[in-house]
Amino acid sequence: MTDDFTFERLDHVQLDIPAGAEDECRAFWSGVLGMTELAKPPVLAARGGGVEVHLGVTPDFRPARKGHPGFQVRSLDALAERLAAHGHEVRWDDNVPGRRRFHSADNLGNRLEFLEPGPAATEA
């Protein structure tokens, strides 16, 4: 297993989670994807938001069927291997010409898209 992938772009995303699932979310976002949990700034803590990935407790939680964040990633294959090694299905999708991408889900069923930079992004 390798950790040679790098997230390139996405400022933040808000994902709904059920009450009591905070530790389960940390296991995925920090443990599997390697993102760092940051202390919430006081103004956001008062509202329940976060900094990088906002996980908002929703009483009637249901994972979105279509809505999802799209992460631009360098070394997409390394990330796919890591997700699969942690038991997360990787579904490759070639429906966008010129873009390598796949979909997966966090441990609560939130849909996630991971893709490599397109030709315009790599030429810039």
What descriptors fit this protein?
single chain; 124 residues; alpha/beta; 2,3-Dihydroxybiphenyl 1,2-Dioxygenase, domain 1; 5-stranded mixed β-sheet; two-stranded parallel sheet; 4 helices
Basic shape: globular
The largest pleated sheet is described as: 5 strands, mixed
Termini, distance in Å? 31 Å
CATH class: Alpha Beta
- For the record, the count of structural domains works out to 1
CATH homology group: 2,3-Dihydroxybiphenyl 1,2-Dioxygenase, domain 1
Strand content range: 25-35%
Query: What is the gyration radius calculated from CA atoms?
Result: 15 Å
Oligomer class? single chain
SS field, number of helical segments? 4
Care to describe what's here?
The structure is a single chain. The chain has helices spanning 22-32, 42-47, 76-85, 119-123, and strands spanning 6-9, 13-17, 53-57, 70-74, 91-93, 101-105, 111-115. The chain is α/β, with parallel strands linked by helices. The chain has a single domain, classed as 2,3-Dihydroxybiphenyl 1,2-Dioxygenase, domain 1, CATH 3.10.180.10. The protein has a five-stranded mixed sheet, with helices on one face. The model is unreliable at 47-51 (pLDDT under 50).
Could you write a compact summary of the structure shown?
This protein has helices at residues 22-32, 42-47, 76-85, 119-123; strands spanning 6-9, 13-17, 53-57, 70-74, 91-93, 101-105, 111-115. By secondary structure, it is an alpha/beta fold. The longest helix has 11 residues, at 22-32.
